[in-house]
Structures are given as C-alpha cells and as structure tokens.
Amino acid sequence: MRVEIRPAFDEAVMSAELPVRKAAAKMLLLLQSLELPQLWSHPGLNFEKLHGMIEPATGYQLYSLRVTGSARAVSCLLTGPAIVLVSLHVQHDKAYRVK
C-alpha cells in the first residue's frame, strides 16, 4: 500500500518522544507491506472508522490507527490504494477531536 504523510503528522512524530517515533516508523513499514484487506483486519493496528468525522480539506472519511498503547494516527484512504497519515495524537482521546 502506498503511504502519504501530511506535514502535521510528520511534525508531530518529530516532536514526540523516542518510543512514539520508533513506533511510528515501525507502523509506516508495516503499512507499506500491507494490502487494503489486511489493513482492515490487522490486530495490532486496530484500524477503525471515526464515525461522523471527515478531513475538512478534502472531505474524506477519517480513520484511526494504533501507533502505541496511547498514541493514535488519524488517516484517510485514497483510491489506489493509498493511506494518508493526517495527524498523530500521543494522547488517545485527543485523536477523536480532530477538526
């Protein structure tokens, strides 16, 4: 699967603590090796739809991915297939307050 990274995600990863940076790098490698059906069923990523949440810039549906036990990446899917990593939230609950 192709992975695109938005600047907000990249900046959040670079400013995060080392364990989160390492986990984000591991997640990126994993995402590149997966096909779309595998993404939906992968137990470690816990890929789930954020109901009622869309990316304001594009109108795409937003999804959550587990980076660590407390950190979540917010993403959207493009045809191709491609996943766009929109933002990173080191506190799980804040991932669901994306505007």
CATH homologous group name: RelE-like
Domain module count: 1
The largest sheet has its strands arranged as: 1-5-4-3-2
Query: What's the number of extended β-strand segments?
Result: 5
Q: Which stretches are poorly predicted, pLDDT < 50 over at least 5 residues?
A: none
Assembly classification: single chain
Beta-strand percent range? 25-35%
CATH architecture descriptor text: 2-Layer Sandwich
Task: Briefly note the structural class of the backbone.
Answer: alpha+beta
The average pLDDT score comes to 90
> SSE order in H/E notation?
EHHHEEEE
Fold and architecture overview:
This protein has one domain (2-97): YaeB-like fold, CATH 3.30.2310. It contains 3 helices and 5 strands. Helices cover 31% and strands 32% of the residues. The chain has a 5-stranded mixed β-sheet.
